[in-house]
Amino acid sequence: MASKKHVSESAAKPVAGLSEVARLSAAELLGLRNALREGGLRVTQPRMMVLAELFQAAGPMSHAEVATRLDDRGLDRVTVWRNLVALTDAGLLARTDIGDHTWRFERADGSAGHDSAAHAHFVCVACKKVSCLPDDAVSLSGTARGSVVLEVQVKGRCDACVDE
């Protein structure tokens, strides 16, 4: 009797192992798996790959940047986008818009060298690179009583663009 199992071409395409993608320790990978489960998400290889890429990033990354980094590992742009949205909805990623109508994603847990997930970003007006600023780089005073600061952006020219 012939098997009725149908495998689509995209499903048959192997996805590179996570060890090829992430330079994370076994403990860090276990932490990512636990974070997914705590966020109510299934642990899938594409989801782990997207999450690992952003946990290793030096700053916020756009969908296009993440998709480009993971393209040669078998993840298409739609899969990357769906995982970015799911990870954001689960509270594992935060997203920000620097005014160019492009969402940028980063860790939401504040553990990328920040005391909290809410921290300031530097946006280069020339090359559009976005980077996280140290927690003590920006001090807010005179904010309205009871207000909550959601996002702070400092714009200027990065070192590379100033030298050009």
The name of the CATH architecture is: Orthogonal Bundle
Using only C-alpha atoms, the radius of gyration works out to 19 Å
**Strand percentage:** 15-25%
CATH superfamily annotation: Winged helix-like DNA-binding domain superfamily/Winged helix DNA-binding domain
Terminal-residue CA separation = 69 Å
Order of helices and strands: HHHHEHHEEEEEH
Stated plainly, the CATH topology is called Arc Repressor Mutant, subunit A
Task: Tell me how many strands there are.
Answer: 6
Integer average pLDDT: 76
In one word, what is the shape? globular
Q: Count of DSSP helices?
A: 7
Structural class from helices and strands?
alpha+beta
Number of domains: 1
Report the sheet with the most strands, covering strand number, pairing sense and barrel closure: 3 strands, antiparallel
Can you characterise this structure?
The model is unreliable at 1-16 (pLDDT under 50). The protein has a single domain (16-162), classed as Orthogonal Bundle (Arc Repressor Mutant, subunit A). Helix 5 (63-71) crosses helix 6 (77-89). It has a 3-stranded antiparallel beta sheet. It is an alpha+beta fold. It has helices at residues 9-12, 18-21, 26-38, 45-56, 63-71, 77-89, 159-162; strands at residues 61-62, 93-97, 103-107, 120-124, 130-132, 152-156. Helix content is 36%, strand content 15%.
